Amino acid sequence: MQSLQGRDFLSLADLSSAELIGMLDLATAMKQGQSPAATSFKTLGLLFHKASTRTRVSFSAAIGQLRGQVLDLNTSVTQVSRGEPTRDTARVLSRYLDIIAIRTYAQAELEEFARYAEIPVINALTDWEHPCQILADLLTVRETFGQLSGLTLAYLGDGNNVAHSLLLGCALAGMTIRVATPAGYAPDAVIVQQAQTLGSDRTQVVITDDPQAAVTGAHVLYTDVWASMGQEAQADSRIPTFQPYQVNQILVAQANPDAIILHCLPAHRGEEITDEVMEGPQSRIWDQAENRLHAQKALLASLLGLS
After folding, report:
1. Of these residues, 98, 170, 264, 294, which one is catalytic?
2. Are 86 and 112 in contact (CB under 8 A)?
3. Could you say which architecture CATH assigns to the domain 133-288?
4. Which residue out of 98, 127, 133, 296 is catalytically annotated?
5. Do 2-129+292-303 and 133-288 fold alike per CATH?
6. Domain locations in the chain as residue ranges
7. Binding residues
8. Binding site for L-ornithine: what residues are annotated?
9. Per-residue pLDDT tens over the stretch 52-103
């Protein structure tokens, strides 16, 4: 994965198909106990403007397993909270850190930071994309089916940042993706077009408002909360609109008999997914959560040149 050394990871579209598969291969090897060929004490900074459990903990554990350290750059106790310009923060932190993961609202802010930083910058979630999550998702799917190409993933719910990154990731992996959302909540047309271009004639990108059509024969059923961070005030009002997109046993029965269930977490049980499905035999949600660690460990090793 030498081609990734020193690069930013702001979007799944930053990777080629070969680089994506190589990243998953490395994550699999590391999960099985393989250590990076070279190890060196590196410092990862976490600059998070939003709450986080899985991303924060998995990145911290990953850099530790690579014999590095993490600095949690709590925005409330740094000059970021007092309005220091992004370009200034990026230049300064580049002098202290080897790599940084940023969780923020606007993709444009992340991209501005990357323009002025002299170290690799990782998108740990923006309102536009969540690429680190999808690395773990695809790793989980491949562990289950032994391949990615030719499979179909159905995403149900809000056309949010996770849906955006799934569109790009599935296209790169050669998977068909069907995104089912209520009218007015579809993923951005720019991302859909990008996914269609990346997938070319290897796969299909389907956007629909019909949840039954989306799940029929699908190998993977995927959902997320109906109101993302920052949209909490809309959560209750969205429930009637999104109720037909709930991943429940009725929808699961229409998928491929060997289909698996994924959710990026945290989940609102009884809303976007039923407790029965989440705890059922087809759920791979906990494996998916664990794979955040292995995927991000491979990502850090690749960007730092340790693989």
Report:
1. 264
2. yes
3. 3-Layer(aba) Sandwich (3.40)
4. 133
5. yes
6. 2-129+292-303, 133-288
7. 52-55, 79, 103, 130-133, 161, 224, 228-229, 264-265, 292
8. 161, 224, 228-229
9. 999 999 999 999 999 999 999 988 888 888 889 999 999 999 999 999 999 9
Q: Note if 103 is an active site residue.
A: yes
CA–CA distance from 193 to each of 77, 115, 146, 168, 199 (Å)?
Answer: 40, 25, 28, 10, 10
Residue 232 has a pLDDT of 77
CA angle 286, 166, 245 (to 5 degrees): 75
Tell me, yes or no, if 49 is annotated catalytic. Answer: no
> Do residues 107 and 133 touch, judged by C-beta distance below 8 A?
no
Which of 49, 103, 142, 219 is catalytic? The answer is 103
The top-level CATH class assigned to 2-129+292-303 is: alpha beta
Place of tokens 């190890």: 39
Cα–Cα distance measured from residue 99 to residue 43, given in angstroms and rounded to the nearest whole number:
7
* Cross-strand partners of 99: 44
**pTM of the shown model:** 0.96
**202 included as an active-site residue:** no
pLDDT at 38: 64
Cβ contact 69:44 at 8 Å = yes
Catalytic option among 224, 238, 288, 294: 224
Known catalytic residue at 147: no
